[in-house]
Inverse folding.
C-alpha cells in the first residue's frame, strides 16, 4: 500500500520547492542523475540572484522540497556557511543566476546520450526528427572545457548564454546545461534534449546516411513546438500526480 504523502512544512517558496523536488526524483528515475553530483537551481527573486538548489552530496532520489538550499549569488561568503553548497554547483549555478536573468531555472546533468554528443568532435545536433528539430538554432556548444566548474569556469560558461534564443548548452567534454522560465519548462527541455540526443546517437551508430530536415522545416517545427499549449506544465503535473499516488515523500 502507498504511504500517505507528507507535504512541505511552512517554508518559503513551497510550490517552487515541490516542483524542484519532483524534478530531482524523476531525473533519478530516468537514470539521468550522476550519483551525488549534478545540480538544479531555481531563481526566486525578481532579478534572479537568489535561488533554490539541491544540498551538497545528496542523491536526487532522496531530495525533499524542504532540503533545498536558498542561496544568494551575490554573497561571497556562501561557501563558508555550515550548509554550503557543492563548490562546483556554486561556481556554475551562481554565475548563471548572477549574469543570466533569463535563466529562471537551470538544470545540469551528465546524462548518457547528451554527454556522448558532447564528447564528439562535432557536437552539433542535426535535425533528423521532431525532437532534434526542437533544438534547431536553440543551443550553444561550449568548445573550451577547462576542468571542474569552479568559479572561473562557471563565469566563462555563463557568458555563453548571451544569445537569449540559446536555452541549451552542449558542454563539450562534460554534459549539458539547460535553462528555462520555470521548473516545468526547464525539465521538459532537458528531458527532450536527452531523447533527441539518444535518437541522433543511435542514428549515427547505424552508419547509414542521415535524413536531415531542411533549415526551413526544422525552424518551423521548433516554432510550432514552442507555441504548443502548456505541454511542459502538463508534463510536470503528471509526474507529480504519479509520485503522489505512489506515496512519495518528495513534497515533504
Amino acid at each position: 500500500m502507498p504511504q500517505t504523502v507528507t507535504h512541505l512544512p511552512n517554508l518559503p517558496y513551497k510550490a517552487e520547492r515541490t516542483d524542484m523536488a519532483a524534478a530531482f526524483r524523476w531525473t533519478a528515475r530516468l537514470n539521468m542523475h550522476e550519483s551525488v553530483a549534478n545540480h538544479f537551481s531555481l531563481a526566486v527573486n525578481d532579478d534572479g540572484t537568489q535561488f533554490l538548489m539541491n544540498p551538497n552530496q545528496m542523491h536526487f532520489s532522496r531530495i525533499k522540497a524542504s532540503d533545498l538550499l536558498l542561496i544568494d549569488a551575490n554573497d561571497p561568503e556562501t561557501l563558508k556557511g555550515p550548509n554550503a553548497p557543492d563548490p562546483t554547483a556554486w561556481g556554475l549555478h551562481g554565475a548563471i543566476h548572477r549574469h543570466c536573468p533569463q535563466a529562471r531555472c537551470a538544470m545540469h546533468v551528465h546524462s548518457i546520450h547528451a554527454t556522448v554528443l558532447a564528447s564528439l568532435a562535432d557536437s552539433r545536433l542535426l535535425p533528423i526528427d521532431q525532437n532534434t528539430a526542437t533544438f534547431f538554432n536553440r543551443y550553444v556548444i561550449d568548445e573550451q572545457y577547462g576542468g571542474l566548474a569552479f568559479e572561473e569556469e562557471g563565469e566563462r560558461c555563463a557568458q555563453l548564454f548571451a544569445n537569449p534564443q540559446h536555452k541549451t548548452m552542449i558542454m563539450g567534454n562534460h554534459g549539458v546545461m539547460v535553462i528555462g522560465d520555470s521548473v516545468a519548462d526547464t525539465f521538459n527541455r532537458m528531458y527532450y534534449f536527452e531523447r533527441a540526443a539518444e535518437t541522433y546517437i543511435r542514428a549515427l551508430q547505424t552508419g547509414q546516411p542521415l535524413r536531415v530536415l531542411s533549415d526551413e522545416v526544422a525552424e518551423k517545427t521548433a516554432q510550432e513546438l514552442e507555441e504548443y499549449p502548456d505541454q511542459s506544465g502538463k508534463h510536470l503535473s503528471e509526474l507529480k500526480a504519479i509520485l503522489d499516488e505512489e506515496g512519495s515523500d518528495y513534497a515533504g
Summary: Confidence is low (pLDDT under 50) at residues 1-6.
